[in-house]
């Protein structure tokens, strides 16, 4: 297999002889960059990581983001509205939009079907949410819903507390970081991450990623590695700001493209952490 440096020289020489070569062969370049990639993010709903394995996955040209509309699960209704429910234990009406406990008998309730993570965590349905408020809400809910609090309760309440606690954990992990939060917001709009489709990343961006990965591989000191870390942090901050602006305007296609770039840089950020740990 060619090294990144050899591949870079090959790409540069062919591009010089044939100006259109890089664009027409961007899928091959993309494969070289991403087949060593370990995606670190939050997936929905089951996994927290993406892995690339050339022996078990579809061709790289078939990976990326696709758009689909799901009318049956209207995402905007997840953030607003109240559904009247009754307590399973005492049958009294539950007045709160997201009632974890019955106000009459104090029995823990089952998770509300279809409730968004924003609703569960009592947050505004926005990309630029207050993470301090989110963390405070998380700690509050976990203190009250932790299964240890229901060891002497009925099996039904123990089951409900475990379900609610697990759901709160998942909601917090998803909303806490900008990347996973943005991907979740796209999912609420019917846009999803699909493996096996073209990501749409252009050749110039892929070449930039190759150079960063190459520099990281060749870094010999913590100082060199930290320089890459700071550059990556700056790129992620810029992408986060631009994604927020796009989502505020309702420009989900632009937000999708920006979040795709964030995934690449988030992966580099994780590789930087691994590299720094080697110097300790």
Automatic annotation (TrEMBL):
InterPro entries: DnaJ_domain, HscB, HscB_C_sf, HscB_oligo_C, J_dom_sf. It comes from the Eukaryota. Keywords: Chaperone, Cytoplasm, Metal-binding, Mitochondrion. Homodimer. Interacts with ISCU (cytoplasmic form); this interaction stabilizes the (Fe-S) clusters on ISCU. Interacts with the CIA complex member CIAO1 (via LYR motif). Interacts with ISCU and HSPA9 to form an iron-sulfur transfer complex. Interacts with SDHAF1 (via the first LYR motif); the interaction recruits the iron-sulfur transfer complex composed of HSC20, HSPA9 and ISCU and mediates the incorporation of iron-sulfur clusters into SDHB which also interacts with HSC20. Interacts with the cytoplasmic form of ISCU and with CIA complex member CIAO1 (via LYR motif). Pfam families: HSCB_C (PF07743). Gene3D superfamilies: DnaJ domain, HscB, C-terminal domain. It comes from Seriola lalandi dorsalis. Acts as a co-chaperone in iron-sulfur cluster assembly in the cytoplasm. Also mediates complex formation between components of the cytosolic iron-sulfur biogenesis pathway and the CIA targeting complex composed of CIAO1, DIPK1B/FAM69B and MMS19 by binding directly to the scaffold protein ISCU and to CIAO1. This facilitates iron-sulfur cluster insertion into a number of cytoplasmic and nuclear proteins including POLD1, ELP3, DPYD and PPAT. Acts as a co-chaperone in iron-sulfur cluster assembly in mitochondria. Required for incorporation of iron-sulfur clusters into SDHB, the iron-sulfur protein subunit of succinate dehydrogenase that is involved in complex II of the mitochondrial electron transport chain. Recruited to SDHB by interaction with SDHAF1 which first binds SDHB and then recruits the iron-sulfur transfer complex formed by HSC20, HSPA9 and ISCU through direct binding to HSC20. Plays an essential role in hematopoiesis. Belongs to the HscB family. Pathway: Cofactor biosynthesis; iron-sulfur cluster biosynthesis. GO terms for cellular component: mitochondrion. This is Iron-sulfur cluster co-chaperone protein HscB. GO terms for molecular function: ATPase activator activity; metal ion binding; protein-folding chaperone binding. One of its GO terms (biological process) is protein complex oligomerization. It is found in: Cytoplasm; Mitochondrion. Residues 116-188 form the J domain.
């Amino acid at each position: 297999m060619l090294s990144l440096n050899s591949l870079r020289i090959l790409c540069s020489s062919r591009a010089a002889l044939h100006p259109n070569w890089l664009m027409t062969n961007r899928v091959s370049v993309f494969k070289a960059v991403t087949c060593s990639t370990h995606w670190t993010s939050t997936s929905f709903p089951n996994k927290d990581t993406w892995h690339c394995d050339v022996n078990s996955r579809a061709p790289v040209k078939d990976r990326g983001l696709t758009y689909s509309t799901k009318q049956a699960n209207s995402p905007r209704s997840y953030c607003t509205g109240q559904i009247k429910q009754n307590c399973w234990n005492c049958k009294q009406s539950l007045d709160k939009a997201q009632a974890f406990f019955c106000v009459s008998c104090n029995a823990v309730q089952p998770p509300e079907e279809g409730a968004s993570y924003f609703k569960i965590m009592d947050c505004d349905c926005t990309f630029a949410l207050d993470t301090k408020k989110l963390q405070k809400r998380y700690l509050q809910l976990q203190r009250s819903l932790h299964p240890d609090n229901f060891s002497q309760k009925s099996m039904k309440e123990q089951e409900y507390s475990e379900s609610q606690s697990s759901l709160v954990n998942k909601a917090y992990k998803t909303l806490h970081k900008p990347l996973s939060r943005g991907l979740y917001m796209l999912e609420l709009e019917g846009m999803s991450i699909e493996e096996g489709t073209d990501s749409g990343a252009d050749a110039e961006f892929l070449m930039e990623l190759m150079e960063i990965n190459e520099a990281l591989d060749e870094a010999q000191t913590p100082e060199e590695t930290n320089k890459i870390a700071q550059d990556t942090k700056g790129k992620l901050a810029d992408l986060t700001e631009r994604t927020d602006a796009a989502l505020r305007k309702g420009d989900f296609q632009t937000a999708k493209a920006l979040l795709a770039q964030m995934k690449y840089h988030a992966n580099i950020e994780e590789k930087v952490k691994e590299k720094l740990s080697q110097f300790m």
